[in-house]
Automatic annotation (TrEMBL):
Chain ranges passing through the membrane: 37-57, 112-129, 136-157, 177-199, 206-224, 244-264, 276-296, 308-327
Topology relative to the membrane: Multi-pass membrane protein
Similarity comment: Belongs to the NIPA family.
InterPro entries referenced in this protein's UniProt entry, alphabetically: EmrE-like, Mg_trans_NIPA
Pfam family, one: Mg_trans_NIPA
Name of the molecule in the record: Magnesium transporter NIPA2
Length: 378
């Protein structure tokens, strides 16, 4: 430490006051950044818990309604769920989760908050198997473990502090050529997909509508983060509601989220949810990480090992999400795996799996044929 020096008589004397003050300020900034990181991390995890639980609560309300007057069901065009207190509790729970997610972007880097959204899928999978009697097979359990492992790796290697700490700094960053080029490319690509690609291939290619959601979604996260920064500064005593940039971010959030919801609903209306969910997660998270690294320079302070760690953690989470969604209907259990392992290889050809309703290949073929029979273009 340079804060204490020794005099000629051997007694310690204070060092340069400027150096001491600078050291204290640096320590305070590091402590403040560390506190913000853990607040954002806690809010992101809480958001996943609330959002994942809200799906289960609303599903239980809809199941309760389905056991009564079927004409009031949502699938039949009814609105009976509006009279169910449990459904409203699910809506409130989701609102709390979205509020936590919004606040998390103000404290932690987007490259940390967005990938942790995968935890809500784990919460939903686990609670549905416990509270809705839905089956979570062995592959689904392994997928949950992979998501947890990938999320942990992301938390360990993610940026711990942000390069943009005020609206003034953000205004300067918005003038960077890299950010302007990215926004222009996103707008041009989205316009081309909406005008030319979507009318021709939107009903046959799952990537069309998901690409629109993901590209615009990356801008919506940047807007949410900018708006959160404005609110955070206002609460700390620096009024930002007189700043035009605050209203720019607010308008961007409203516009981007609206477009995002429209095209996500189109994708869900045409394609299977088990395919839309993992593909959308991969595309959306990738574009958010790219956009935040361009505007907020979140990866500029990371070393090569942390960059690789983030990539590995994200890839592990992707594998877990796909495994949970794509193989959730495959009838496989730990007992069947143990039975396969314990059999000699020569007797596998004569193995009797008649007790299993499906296997991996049969299940895939059956789902493909059913999908082809049910394919309806709107």
């Amino acid at each position: 430490m340079a804060s204490i020096a020794s005099s000629s008589n051997g007694f310690p004397t204070p060092a340069d006051p400027v150096t001491s003050i600078g050291s204290v300020n640096t320590l305070d900034e590091v402590h403040y950044a560390s506190t913000d990181f853990y607040i954002g991390l806690g809010l992101a995890v809480s958001s996943s818990l609330f959002i994942g639980s809200s799906f289960i609560i609303k599903k239980k309300a809809l199941l309760k309604l389905a056991s009564g007057d079927t004409s009031q069901r949502a699938s039949e065009g009814g609105y009976g769920y509006l009279r169910e207190w449990m459904w409203w509790m699910g809506v409130i729970t989701m609102g709390v989760g979205e509020a936590c997610n919004f606040a998390a972007y103000a404290f932690a880097p987007a490259s940390l908050v967005t990938p942790l959204g995968a935890l809500s899928v784990i919460v939903t999978a686990i609670l549905s198997s416990r509270m809705l009697n839905e089956r979570l097979n062995l592959l689904g359990s392994i997928g949950c473990a992979l998501c947890l492992l990938g999320s942990t790796v992301i938390v360990i290697h993610s940026p711990k502090e942000e390069e943009v700490g005020s609206m003034a700094e953000l205004a300067l960053k918005m003038k960077d050529a890299g950010f302007l080029i990215y926004v222009i490319l996103v707008i041009l690509a989205t316009g081309f997909i909406v005008v030319y690609v979507a009318p021709r291939y939107g009903h046959t290619n799952i990537l069309v509508y998901i690409s629109v959601c993901s590209l615009i979604g990356s801008l919506s996260v940047l807007s949410v983060k900018g708006l959160g920064l404005a609110i955070k500064e206002t609460l700390s005593g620096h009024q930002q509601f007189t700043n035009w940039l605050t209203y720019f971010w607010l308008a961007s959030v409203a516009m981007c989220v609206s477009v995002q919801l429209i095209y996500l609903n189109k994708a869900l209306d045409i394609f299977n949810t088990s395919m839309v969910t993992p593909i959308y997660y991969v595309f959306f998270t990738t574009f958010v990480i790219l956009a935040s690294s361009i505007l907020y320079k979140e990866w500029s302070c990371l070393g090569a090992s942390d960059v690789i760690g983030n990539f590995v953690g994200f890839l592990t989470t992707i594998i877990g999400i796909f495994q949970m969604q794509l193989f959730r209907d495959v009838n496989i259990s730990l007992y069947q795996v143990q039975k396969l392992v314990s059999r000699p290889s020569a007797s596998l050809a004569n193995a009797d799996f008649s007790s299993s309703s499906t296997n991996l290949v049969d299940d895939y073929c059956m789902r493909q044929s059913n999908s082809n029979r049910r394919m309806v273009y709107t």
